[in-house]
Structure formats: C-alpha cells, structure tokens
C-alpha cells in the first residue's frame, strides 16, 4: 500500500501585481477554474502520483466582521496557496515539481513578496509550507495508478457485457468469461492492473506509534481533562450566549464568481477561509477539535467515509496564521448535495468544527443548533468560500463510489476461487 501525502505552499502576494498573477493563472485553464492538464506552467499530467492540485488566492473579505467583537481586523494581505494531494512521500513530489515544472513555478511564485529570482525553489517551497492540522483521505492507499487502471477495467467490462449475447448464463459462467476476457486484454496490452507496492516500513512504524501514543498520552492526562471539563463547559456556554449574530447574505458578485466554477464535472472543489472567533478559548478549542479529526481520519475513517459522508475524496484544515484557518475539499456531486449531506447526516460535526469560526450561526453546547439553521449556515459558508483559480483532478469523471465499485470488481476477478455467496454479492455490483 502506498499512503497519501499533502503539500500546501502559502506566501503573501505583492499587492500591486495581483491582477497580473490572476491573469497568469487563468492561462493554465481549459475553462474557468478547471486546469488544462498539459498547461505549460505546471503540466499536471506529467505527475503520475498527483490526485488533486490547485492554486487559490486567499482573500479574507470577512475580516471586518471582527469589529463586532471590538477586535482590530488583520491587514488586507492576500496570499497565494498551492496545494497538492498525492501518493507517496512529500520529498519525492517536491523534487519532481522542481524537475518538471521549475520555470513555471518560478514565474508563478515571482508574484510573491518573499520570492527572488535567485531563490532555491525547493528550499523556498519547503520554507513556505503550511502543514495541515487535520487531513482526510477517502481511501488510504488507493493510488492514482490504481484509480485509472481500475476505471479502464470497468469500461472494458461494460463494453464486453454490452457486446455479449444474452444467453442466460449463470453468475459463475459470467465470472469465468470475464476473467478470461480480462486476461486476454492484459496479454494484448490493452489493460494493465499494477499490483500494489509494499507499505513502507517507516510509515507503518510512525502510524502505529501515533495510533498507540496519542491515546496513551490522553489517558495520562485524563485526570486534568476531567478536572477542566466543567470549567470548559461553563466557558463554552457563556461564549455561545454572548456571541453576536453576524449573518449578512453573500454578495451577488461572490455568488456569481463561485457559481461559474462549480459543476463543470461531477467532481467539485471547495475552498473556504476565515477568522476564528477572538480569544484563546476559541483558538484552543479548534486546535483540540482538529487534533481529534486528524487522529480519527488517520486511523478510523480511512476506507471510504468521514462520519456518514462518503462523497469527500480529499479534505484538509490548515492554520494560515494564529487567527485564520483555510479549509479545502474535493468532493463528488453538487455543492447543494454536499451541504445537504453534512446538514442531514453530521450537522453536529459541522458545529463542533466550524462554530469556532467568526460568523457561524449560534450553537447550543457546541453540538446543537448551528448548522440546523440551514439557510444561515449556507450563507456563512458562501461568504467564506473562495473562488479557486486553478484546479486539477487526475480522474475527472470518477467518483468515490465509482472507485469503490471498480476495486470490488477487480478484487472479485483476481480471486482464483470464489464461493457461491461471494459470487452472488459480486454480481450485484454490476
């Protein structure tokens, strides 16, 4: 198994040059927001391990909301962010980016304040990276190569079944026919099914240490946690009762700019950026919440679902500075379906995470209310959502559901023996 990794490079943009940067990023696209895989600046198609990538300008148009709390908004500095979700270690992709896209990356990053013509590109990217506080991968170990090859397998099988005469064959006869057909396609070089790589031993050791070490530390801290819990609940409720309501509707211009980028294909991107409610209590609460999400996403939600939601392929939460957080996801279906999935299935989870954000609908004991106020919640998300200037996906028409179906089909075909009950379940996949 090859585990997945992330990179996010963030740097402030030279304000006077931002319009030119936006124009340059637009040249990387086939259509608004959707990257040309063969663009000359960063030719994403040359990176065989890259699932998703994006360039997005982080612009905090909601920072003035802080004045409601009597706080001073941060300076209106915009940042350029470059994100990648990929297979294998980060060092390998960094080196590959420099090897295959150095001129283009230099041209893009030249619009950032800290980048100079003589800068060591690899070192500069490392110095300007922001690690995720929480990161989610739909299926840990499922590589780009696997996704593409198994989708080719599904397309070939669909073609074969459409051509095949209906003869009333039994499930076992169909299974044998398909196994023979797939072997013939592989022998002819029309299909490839690459075996998985061994799981890196270093990753296994680190993951096991993390899995065991975190609960152990929390167990040792349990007396302090129990002692603080009543004080936390009192502080929380006092904060919730005093939180001002900040509920303006998103502007028509923002909604239009976001609509233009969405539903181009069955998979979509989401970027959101904003401030945490002022004060150390909210900051440490969101740190603790993201810590818990990171642990569960790393050790529990690793095979196809986050809570009860199955449509997210990759997601991450990143602190840009001490008071602002960036969230990104790559998900299947429309934004309306995406929001509905969360509101209907895990609204309490939305509250736990996002209620610490400035302008979120009022919650009750952290988990109640909040996102249940559907329209204010959707307005909150829309106000904090950002247009993503460049977005790349390695498998544009393949959803998380498709990937799981394709893997199950492959697993069934690669078995040398299969019981009747297993065969009945396998046939139902089609």
Helix content: 40-55%
Strand content: 15-25%
- The low-pLDDT segments are none
Rg value: 24 Å
The total strand number stands at: 12
Shape annotation? globular
Structure report:
This protein is of the alpha+beta class and 430 residues long. The chain has 2 domains: 4-142 and 199-393, no CATH class; 144-163 and 174-195 and 399-427, no CATH class. The chain is built from 12 helices and 12 strands. The protein has helices spanning 18-26, 90-109, 121-127, 144-163, 171-187, 201-242, 252-259, 280-299, 335-354, 374-384, 400-414, 420-427, and strands spanning 4-12, 29-31, 33-35, 50-58, 79-87, 134-137, 267-275, 312-319, 324-332, 363-364, 368-369, 390-393. A hairpin with a 1-residue loop joins strand 2 (29-31) and strand 3. The two termini are 26 Å apart. The mean pLDDT is 94. Keywords: Membrane, Transmembrane, Transmembrane helix. The chain crosses the membrane at residues 212-234.
Helices, strands, pairings?
Elements: E1 4-12, H1 18-26, E2 29-31, E3 33-35, E4 50-58, E5 79-87, H2 90-109, H3 121-127, E6 134-137, H4 144-163, H5 171-187, H6 201-242, H7 252-259, E7 267-275, H8 280-299, E8 312-319, E9 324-332, H9 335-354, E10 363-364, E11 368-369, H10 374-384, E12 390-393, H11 400-414, H12 420-427
Kindly summarize this structure in a few lines.
The chain is α+β, with helices and mostly antiparallel strands and 430 residues long.
List the main descriptive attributes of the protein structure presented here.
alpha+beta; transmembrane helix; membrane; six-stranded mixed beta sheet; 430 residues; four-stranded antiparallel beta sheet; 46% helix; 2 domains
């Amino acid at each position: 198994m090859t585990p997945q990794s992330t990179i996010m490079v963030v740097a402030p943009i030279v304000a006077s040059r931002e319009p030119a940067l936006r124009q340059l990023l637009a040249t990387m696209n086939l259509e608004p927001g959707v990257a040309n895989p063969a663009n000359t600046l960063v030719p994403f198609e040359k990176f065989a391990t890259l699932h998703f990538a994006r360039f997005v300008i982080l612009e905090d148009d909601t920072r003035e909301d802080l004045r409601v709390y009597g706080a001073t908004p941060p300076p209106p500095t915009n940042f350029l962010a470059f994100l990648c979700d990929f297979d294998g270690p980060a060092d390998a992709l960094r080196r590959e980016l420099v090897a295959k896209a150095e001129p283009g990356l230099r041209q893009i990053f030249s619009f950032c304040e800290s980048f100079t013509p003589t800068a060591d590109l690899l070192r500069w990217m490392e110095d300007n990276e922001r690690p995720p506080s929480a990161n989610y991968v739909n299926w840990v170990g499922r590589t780009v190569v696997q996704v593409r090859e198994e989708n080719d397998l599904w397309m070939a099988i669909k073609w074969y079944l459409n051509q095949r005469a209906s003869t009333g064959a039994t499930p076992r006869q169909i299974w044998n026919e398909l196994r023979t057909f797939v072997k013939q396609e592989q022998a002819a070089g029309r299909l490839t099914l690459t075996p998985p790589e061994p799981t890196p031993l270093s990753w296994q050791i680190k993951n096991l240490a993390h899995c065991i070490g975190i609960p152990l530390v929390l167990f040792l801290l349990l007396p302090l946690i129990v002692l603080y819990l009543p004080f936390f609940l009192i502080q929380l409720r006092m904060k919730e009762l005093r939180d001002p309501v900040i509920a303006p509707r998103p502007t028509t211009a923002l909604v239009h700019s976001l609509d233009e980028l969405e539903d181009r294909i069955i998979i979509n991107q989401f970027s959101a950026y904003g401030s945490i409610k002022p004060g150390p209590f909210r900051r440490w609460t969101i740190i603790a919440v993201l810590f818990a999400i990171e642990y569960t996403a790393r050790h529990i939600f690793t095979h196809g679902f986050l809570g009860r939601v199955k449509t997210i392929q990759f997601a991450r939460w990143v602190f840009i500075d001490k008071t602002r957080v960036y969230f990104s996801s790559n998900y299947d279906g429309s934004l309306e379906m995406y929001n509905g999935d969360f509101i209907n299935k895990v609204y309490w989870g939305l509250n736990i995470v996002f209620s610490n954000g400035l302008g979120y609908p009022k919650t009750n004991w952290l988990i109640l209310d909040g996102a249940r106020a559907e329209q204010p919640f959707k307005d909150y998300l829309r106000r904090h959502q950002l247009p993503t200037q460049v977005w790349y996906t390695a498998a544009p028409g393949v959803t998380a559901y498709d990937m799981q179906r394709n893997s199950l089909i492959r697993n069934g075909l690669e078995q040398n023996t299969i019981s009747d009950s297993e065969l009945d379940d396998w046939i139902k996949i089609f």
